[in-house]
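May I ask you to comment on the folded chain given beneath this request?
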Amino acid sequence: MDAVLLARFASVPKRGRVLDLCTGNGVVPILLTTRTQASLEGIEIQPRLADMARRSVQLNALEESITIHEGDLRELVKETGHAVYDAITVNPPYMPLNGSDLKMNNHQAMARHEIGCTLEEVIQACNRLVRNGGKVFMVHRPQRLGEIISLMREYKLEPKRIRMVHPRAHLEANMVLIEALKDGKPEVRMLPPLIVYNEEGKYCEEIMDIYYGAQHVQRTTEGGL
């Protein structure tokens, strides 16, 4: 769900270049093809996931729209140059390495824990790669929001929109979506919370819209599917 919500939250330009850091199996750039004609790229450090992303691109016949890089996001600027992207999306590992339980396979550990890159290194890479006036979109955990805002401002990425995601209305948020502007002025909007499940344990209308489209929501509320 993280990647789907990030792709929907991101207000990417219609043209230009858009990069997805920590792309995993390529879900975010694939979803973004429905909303932009920009050149889309993803970078993934794990060879297995990078291969999955390339195959997903091929299966969806999106080779002309999406390029997948296998490599370290900390080194990408050496290949691309500075400030070449109009927007960046990122769904980074959430958990700091210190004190984390790493009793899982290497692929899972790298996806969830800051083994291949730290939060600061991710934000630093965004600063180097996005142009002045370009946007960065991140999904992360609310527990680290203070750290995220502090690091973004340190690297000249000014938070502009923040939205909390709650599994249910009465529960604490378990995700946060953040939009930052390179060299932007200090002014942030706190958007209404996004609730995933209603009291009946079903997806709320906005989540249904995100996954299936507004038409499906209308049919459902009118007694259709």
Q: What stands out?
A: Residues 93 and 111 are 5 Å apart (CA to CA).
